[in-house]
Amino acid sequence: MNPLLEGIAAAAQLPALVANLAGVILGILFGSMPGLTFSTALILVLPATFVFDAIVAMSLLLGVFIGGMTGGSVSAILLGIPGTPSAAATAIDGFAMRKKGEAGKALGIAVIASITAGLLSLSLLVVIAPYIARFALKFGSAEIAALVLFGLSTIIGVSSGSILKGLVSGFLGLMFMSVGLDPIMGTHRYTFGYPPLYAGVDLLAAMIGLFAIPQIIKDLPRGKGEALKVDDTGVHNELPSWNDLKRCLGTIVRGALIGTGVGAIPGTGGPIAAFLSYDVNKRLSKNKKLWGTGIMEGVAAPEAGNNGITGGALIPLLTLGIPGDPGTAIMLGALLIHGLQPGPLLFQKNAEVVYGIFAALFIANILTLLVQWFGIRLFVRMLRVPMGYLLPVIMILTVIGSYAVRNNLFDVYVMAAFGLLGCFLEKYKFPTTPVILAIVLGPALETEFRRALIQAEGNYLVFLHSPIALTFILLTLVMLLSPFFLSVWKRSRESVD
Amino acid sequence: MGQVTRRDRVPAILLLAWSLLWIYLTWQIPPETIGHAPGPRFFPWILGIGLALLSLWLLLISSKSVEESRGGEFNPFDFKGLVTLGLFYGYIWLIGLIGMRWATLVTMPVFLVFSFNHRRPSRIVLFTLILAFATDFIFGNLLGMALPRGRLF
């Protein structure tokens, strides 16, 4: 059977559709609840995907991804509190519209802009990804090592506040992945003769601990049984008029393109895309002064930007195996768990999975539109569920999830230890995303780096002889040094002013 | 995430100690190589030395910094956070002893009362029962996943 048809058929089968729908509902729920993130939802459902085949598993995860990205707008519009950081820009005009009694219109344009941008972004993914994958087939160990190093340099991008702290987090992640048997020679490293450590630290157990435990502890003060006070009278999705749609169309397309472009750059993510789209569209608008007072374009722009990244972020993930944010890092983990190595070979060896992922992404967008459209009142009611009921459920899921990895209590202990590390990092404001990126990319970096040197008989210049590897090394240097040059440039501008 | 402040001296010192321990442990890895390529020690060495340098840098900057972080920030190690973490580790230990279902039945009411501030006994009992048995049913029966069993039963 043709891989394209095979992939589409797999994504359209009932189990995949049900998984996609469940993911969308969960994603919207987690995305819309301030304090919970859809990354946490992705982590918590990941263990349940072990029992499914790859396409059903990816349908579930993509459903959470798309639903979570879209769901953040619900609380941003109704409460002025963004459910996800990506929805922060939506709150500006969305909440202003709510105050003017136009919540229905704001919710309507938010979901339409999100889904249109998601589908446009998917189209770009389908067109661009195979070309990049074909080019990446030329990569050998030296090129892959340099590429992974570049992927790790995105730690700079995800370390808002202090790059030094981001680097420390990244080093910690790389250290934990060194535990176990050496990937090339099988030598024991930090195993202390304890058999469960031979296989190393499990990726999923570490991610669950790092994400979910600090989240539970963080939300504890709200666990008093107090629910968010949401007034749902008059809340419904209102279809924008034809004139409204025509007015917002340019904004949505621009937002989708910005989102796809930003999403394709590892280390950026939804908040940057949303604010950039808001800013660019505001600058191009004829009614600049109205932005911020509650206009539809002000809701459409960030929503299109933040959902535009959904296709863009999958470009480096699927073609090069480089995740750009926690969400795609978790999806990379899921593909690895199912024995699939994202990268150019995935397009050759498992083309049906790639097409299945594209089809699942399309279905997730459509399902999100339907679920958020018809279930908006239900999600508003769900916002009232006290954290005191949700957090114990999340706590139990952390245990089940980490145990399910290898049916081994040791992984639950690993999860608990990483939970403590996560709390420590949170307390001293070290970012946790670099730990995840390092845990995911670390083994590939070491393996390919050493493999390249074995092939070159220890000649370190092998990384400079390859133009592709050299390009990635230079890009890494640019990424690492850019904050320094930016601050020097800013200071010189200030002194001139 | 935050800028470096004076209170970052604590993590800087802890990270420095950790990196020194890491370097010592790296010393214990046999120095094998293939040809002239780096062996299993190479990568951990770089990580240990790199983290030690970064920790020293953090220590230096945080010691020079006069800015103290403001109050009211998230502290996972306040009384409630610490006790909840302690209860959670107790729960995991208990799972290893008596299995997931019974450990949930025993510890969940404590969690609900202390960590999540539930007060109505009927709700606490009902929610505990639902959590313990729904977990079994959904993950054990519907999804066919294995749930942790204890050493005793």
Describe this structure in a few short sentences.
The complex is a heterodimer of chains A (497) and B (153). Chain A is mainly α and 497 residues long.
Largest interface, by Cβ-Cβ below 8 angstroms: which chains and how many residues each? A-B, 71 and 67 residues
Q: Approximately how much helix is present in the residues of chain A?
A: over 70%
How would you classify the helix and strand content of chain A by structural class?
A: mainly alpha
* Number of β-strand runs of chain B: 0
Number of helices of chain A: 22
Mean pLDDT of chain A: 84
Detail the poorly predicted runs of chain A: none
End-to-end span of chain B in angstroms? 45 Å
User: Radius of gyration of chain A in whole Å, from Cα?
Assistant: 22 Å
| Computed structural class of chain B | mainly alpha
How many domains of chain B, as an integer?
2
SSE pattern of chain B: HHHHH
Count of helical regions of chain B: 5
* Beta content of chain A: under 5%
Backbone CA Rg of chain B: 23 Å
Regarding quaternary structure, how should these chains be classified? Answer: heterodimer
